[in-house]
Inverse folding.
C-alpha cells in the first residue's frame, strides 16, 4: 500500500490537470455488481492494468459510457 501526504497545493495542481484533460484514468474492465466476486478475483490475480469498475448496470452499458461507444 502506498502512503503519501498531499498538500493543498498538490491537490490544486492535480485538480487543474484533471480539469484540463491531462490526467485520465485507464479503465481495464467493467463488471456488473453481480459479477463483483469475479472482479475481485481478477484484481487478486494481478491481471489489472488499469481501474476495475463495478457498476449497477451491465458491463456493456458501462463500457459504452466510459469509452464513448
Amino acid at each position: 500500500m502506498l502512503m503519501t501526504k498531499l498538500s493543498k497545493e498538490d491537490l490544486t495542481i492535480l485538480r487543474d490537470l484533471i480539469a484540463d484533460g491531462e490526467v485520465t484514468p485507464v479503465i481495464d474492465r467493467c463488471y456488473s455488481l453481480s459479477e463483483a466476486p469475479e472482479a475481485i478475483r481478477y484484481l487478486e490475480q494481478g491481471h489489472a492494468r488499469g481501474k476495475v469498475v463495478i457498476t449497477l448496470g451491465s458491463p456493456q452499458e458501462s463500457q459504452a459510457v466510459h469509452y464513448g461507444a
